Structure formats: structure tokens, C-alpha cells
Amino acid sequence: RSRRVAGGFADLGVAPGDRVVVLMANCPEVLIAYNAIWRAGAVVTPVVFLVTATELSHILVDSGAVAVVTTPELLPTVLEAAADAGTLRHIVVAGSYGGAASGGGGARLVDFGELELVEGRSLVRCADDDLAALMYTGGTTGRAKGVALSHANLWRTGRSAFETTHVPGLTRVLTPLPLSHAYGMIVTIIGMHVDEPGLAVIQRWFNAAEWVSLCEQHRCQRSALVPAMAQMLLAEPLEDAALDSLRYVSSGAAPLALDVLREFERRIPSAEILEGYGCTETSAVISSSPPGNRRVGSVGVPIRDCAVRIVDDGDQPLGVGQDGEICVSGPGVMRGYWNAPQETAEAMRGGWLHTGDVGHVDSDGYLYVVDRKKDLILRGGFNVFPRDVEDVLLSHGDVAMAGVVGRPDARLDEEVVAFVSLRPGATVTADE
What we know:
The chain contains twelve helices and 23 strands. By secondary structure, the protein is α/β, with parallel strands linked by helices. Strands 9-8-10-11-12-13-14 form a seven-stranded mixed β-sheet. A five-stranded parallel β-sheet has the order 2-1-3-4-5. Strands 15-16-18-19 form a four-stranded antiparallel β-sheet, with no helix packed on it. Helix 1 crosses helix 2, helix 3 packs across helix 4 and helix 6 crosses helix 7.
């Protein structure tokens, strides 16, 4: 199917190097689209489907995307966002959408099935350093910026993470992660390196009760979660389900509370949680916990060819056990931020990616993340940019000023808190 869809993209005029936005909840077409876009030599630009039209419009304009792949329930958001996207030529819809011929800004609406009617094209050969993915992520201020990842970034990170985490024979995998998130996408790329027969079960969107049912029904052996998902699963009657097939659970995208880890493993005795660490700028993985050789509280050891060092505020290296900013170099580190040379130079100063996270390493090289320097809020594994929330609050006619911060939350890691100052005489309630 990916070969045929790659030919369909080529027939639409999608050329090597063109950006194609993929905005869908989890479904088989996400994976088919990713592989088709790569086969066509184009650039996957994944967008989490929680995005607003304003945020999507920024991504379409900034990336210069020529096409969007989406589903009917998200089509209204795409059409609204497309009005200002002058480069957008095609909106590909996977599913029945009512048959309009054109979308916002004049982009042509195309049925995903039409792309599959084309005979498959041969693979477009790309250089290692050619752009493979443009993933939008947050900074401490301003709008989301594109992280430019090459084919070598994704392939080598996927391969190294596979080598660190793979256990032969454990190939029945349950994936509730959004495939449009860096964590979800790299899990699919790691899976490309598995050469044993297996089963991949994906959830359209995470639901704790459904996760338990699917794990039990399909005898899943592995799963990848964010800590908020693990917390939600603890509210389910885990002891009543036959989950003894589950061996390893990967946890990433946010810090995992020690009491959640212990309670999860107490209630599913067969399972061991393996924490990992990464960011979009490192193709989602910096370190992973080796199965059977983890250290509780640690996010594991750096994957192969990934170097980690801890520095002080003057960028001077610190010793074992000393807390400082985590810096990274290696084949998984991004080419840079899209159209942002100054921000790229700042993040990559001295040849090391500065993550903005604080941590230390022990004498055996295990990495511990203890805090974050960045102002952005990490809610349930997703970046929430204070300015975005402030902008929405300030659009209300009775709001004079607004400031947004994060506070600790047992379930989501952080919750968004807004401080709002009303205009004189206004009587808006907190709920409003």
C-alpha cells in the first residue's frame, strides 16, 4: 500500500524534499503515509491532532507544506488553517468526507483511496543527510519551531535504540502513543529493525480500559507509555485481567514518579518498566534502560554513538554525580531548527545540543534527569506553550492580562494554571 501511495503522491506532483503534513489520529493510514512519503523522497511533517487551526496554520505556512493527509473529523480544522497557506496544493482525506472538490485557499481535496490506484513507483534514493522529517516542537517562548531530522538521524537512532531495548521473541507490541508525536514515530522506526514475525496493535487514542482489554486479548508482551498513561492504568482493575504476557513497558516523554512505577509493577508482576529519555531534537531518544539491567530512578544509558555530558552555566563539564544541564552529541542530533539559524546556533553551541534539562550521571554512565530549565509545561507527555494559552485567554474581551505556568500534578506530571486579570468592571467567573 505504501508503494502505491508513493506513486499517488508523485502523480500529485509531490517532489523529493517537499513537506507533507500528516494530521491524523492513530490508524493504519498514518504508517502507510509515513512510508509512502519517505519512498517518494518527500518529508514527513507529523502534527498531533489536538492542534488548533491557528497552530496548524503556522505550521503549514512555516513549513511550506504542499499537501496534508488527514481524516474527516479533522478536515474542518485543516480547511480553516489552509486559508493562509499559499503553498498547499492538496488535502488528502482518508475516509468519507462529503465530496467537496476544493478546500481552504484553493487546495484540491483528494480521497486517500485514489492514491492507492496508482502503480507503485520505485524508491527515490535519498542521501543520508537529506531531510526526512520536520517535527514541530516548542521553545521557551513564541510559536512552535520545526526540528529538521535527516534520514540518518532517524535510521541510526532507531537502530541504536533497537539494539539497546530488543529482546528476541517479544514481538507482540501494544502502541497507544500518538504516532504523530516524536516518541510514537521513533517507536515505529525501531519496529522496522525487528526481523522476527510479530504483531503490532495500535490504539486510535489512549483509553485505559481498552488498553487492558487489548493487552489481554492479544497477549501483548511489550508496550510504550507516557507516565500519565501509567497513572490512568492504575485506576483500572489490573489484577482482574490476564496480563501475565506483559514483560516490558517503556516509559518516556516525561518523568515517571517512583510510586507509580512500584505500584504498576506490584499489580502486574510480570512487567518491568524501562525508563528512557530523549527530545525531538535528538530524534526522540538519548538514553534507554537495558531490559533486565535497569536502575530505578535512572533513564538508562546513552544509546550507541550518543555522547552525553553535564555542564554548568558556563558550559564547563561537571563530574560524576554533579547536577547540570544535559548536553548531547551524536548521529541522532537534528540538522537544526527550520529557518531559524540563530536559535540553532544557540542550541548547538560548542557542537553540543543543549537540552535545557538538568541531570547527572553516575559512575557507570547511567543518566538521571532531575529537573527542567525550560519554561514550557509538560502535560501528560505533551509540550504546552504558555504563550499559546495566554493568547487564547487574551482573546476574551474581558481579560486584561494573563500569565500561564505549570504546577505539579500526580496524574499528568504538570497541569496548566492561568493567572487572569480582568478589565475594570468585568464580572467573568473562573469557569467562564
